[in-house]
């Protein structure tokens, strides 16, 4: 049983979420609150839940602002009518991002994602920290696309753009390699191996002549100025 809270300034949306929670045997509703200030008060007065269903656009204190001030937030599922906050939300390590209106099936999928993050081998002392979210949203043309960066082979700089390459897709994104490298700082498998390449070390099959051979027949050069740090890092993989 997971305890949960809802924070949303729209009464209809709150009632819908309350109904979805009622339909879910694994959830127990602890609080249903009408704005971010009420949510902040709830947590500062010692309120605790396993899951928070959180709207973004609310008066006085937005959902993202609330997340930034909470010292130990629960698993968070964003529920919003806006798609353009997805990047900011996932940088705050939210578990899922639901765009209104969404069906009960999508709500259930998000709850299952929370359960998957919380499951794992028991620890003798404190429970282990939930695994890091490996997804990021990136803007591809006019769409926000969710990419699982565990599946990314490498990222290549293309002037003011980057080419994000997986085994099945290539995504051209309007950003710099430096900016994306900063966003990927919490992904330890990604390292800079060339002035034009970021590499996922978990995708390496072999290395020959300072070239990384990746799954699917892809090749990435290891730049001379990056070689010492790269080979030292391999000893810890």
From TrEMBL:
Q: What species was this sequence derived from?
A: Hymenobacter armeniacus
Q: Which UniProt keywords apply?
A: Phosphoprotein
Q: Where is the HTH LytTR-type domain?
A: 136-236
- Record-listed 4-aspartylphosphate modification sites: 55
| This protein's record includes keyword Phosphoprotein | yes
Which named protein is this? Response regulator transcription factor
Q: Pfam families from the xrefs?
A: LytTR (PF04397), Response_reg (PF00072)
In this protein, which residues make up the domain named Response regulatory?
Answer: 3-115
Query: What's the domain of life for this entry?
Result: Bacteria
Q: What Gene3D superfamilies would the database entry show?
A: 3.40.50.2300, LytTr DNA-binding domain (2.40.50.1020)
Stored PANTHER family: STAGE 0 SPORULATION PROTEIN A HOMOLOG (PTHR37299:SF1), TRANSCRIPTIONAL REGULATOR-RELATED (PTHR37299)
């Amino acid at each position: 049983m997971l305890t949960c809270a809802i924070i949303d300034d729209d009464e209809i949306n709150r009632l819908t979420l309350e109904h979805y929670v009622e339909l879910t045997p694994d959830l127990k509703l602890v609080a249903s609150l009408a704005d971010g200030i009420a949510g902040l008060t709830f947590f500062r007065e010692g309120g605790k839940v396993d899951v928070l269903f959180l709207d973004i656009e609310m008066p006085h204190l937005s959902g993202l602002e609330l997340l930034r001030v909470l010292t130990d937030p629960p698993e968070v599922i964003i529920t919003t009518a806006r798609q353009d906050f997805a990047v900011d939300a996932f940088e705050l390590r939210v578990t899922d991002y639901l765009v209104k209106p969404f069906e009960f099936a999508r709500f259930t999928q998000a709850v299952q994602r929370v359960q998957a993050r919380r499951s794992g081998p028991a620890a003798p002392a404190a429970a282990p920290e939930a695994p890091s979210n490996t997804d990021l949203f990136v803007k591809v043309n006019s769409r926000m696309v969710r990419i699982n960066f565990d599946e990314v082979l490498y990222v290549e700089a293309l002037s003011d753009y980057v080419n994000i390459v997986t085994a099945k897709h290539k995504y051209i994104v309007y950003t710099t390699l430096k900016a994306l490298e900063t966003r990927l700082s919490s992904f330890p498998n990604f390292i800079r191996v060339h002035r034009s390449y970021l590499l996922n070390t978990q995708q390496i099959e072999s290395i020959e002549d300072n070239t990384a051979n990746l799954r699917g027949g892809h090749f990435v050069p290891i730049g001379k100025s990056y070689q010492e740090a790269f080979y030292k890092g391999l000893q810890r993989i």
